[in-house]
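Notes from the 1:1 (GR / supervisor)

We went over the backlog. Supervisor wanted to see one worked example end to end before approving the batch request, so GR pasted a single chain during the call. The sequence is below; no edits were made to it. Supervisor asked that the structure be written out right there so they could see what the output format looks like.
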Amino acid sequence: MKPILVYSKEEAERNAFTVEKICKGLGTKLVTPDYRGEAAFVVNRSNDYEIARYYEQRDIRVFNGAQFTRIANDKQLCYDFMEQNGIEIMQTRYRSVPFVKKPKNSHGGQGVVMCYNTAEYDENKVCQKPASDLGRDVRVWVIGGEIVCAFLRVSDKDFRSNYCLGGRAEPYNLNEEEKSKVNRIIELVTPLGADYYGIDFVFDNGKAVFNELEDAVGARMIYANTDIDIIEMYVDYINQTKK
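Structure output shown during the call:
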């Protein structure tokens, strides 16, 4: 019985480098999200918590776990969770203008817009107070509860600083306060089945404020700017903890 790697067809093509490294390192079979066959263990890169839950109910180890995948891919649920546990966020359900509006399950900045009219408020989406320092954020990568690295992302032309939207990136040294925030979030999400993921922060008046969890986190900026082989690190982690 082989382990499986779950990706949508489109994302598997877009992330061919990652797919190849995981399949080679773990001996996984690449499957699409509709697959429900046997598996020794599961590397779920679909952002679909139902897949993780299906296998967990059959006592099969899943990276990342269902609870984490659910909260990471529902932004409002994630903001509520963080706020309830004392993590500072930019206010949501925010009706004053301007406000940032984004789909609850958006990734890579897709569908995220700045709104200047209260009529654009939508209770089915996340409507959030903008941070003061637009076009600038930090992503932190975590494997097995340990910080691997962090990058500052900056855009000079868009309030969204996503690397895939043309933002530039550079390695970033977290200060002690920022490390403390990251470690507190790690403490909160590790029991939910968080294995390999990203934590994003925006800057409000110079202070890092939690923004998002990234479940099937990408690593292009790491490979483009460092010699860190983070997918290899993830493969090693899975090999050590898959049982």
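Supervisor's comment: The chain has a mean pLDDT of 95.
Batch request approved.
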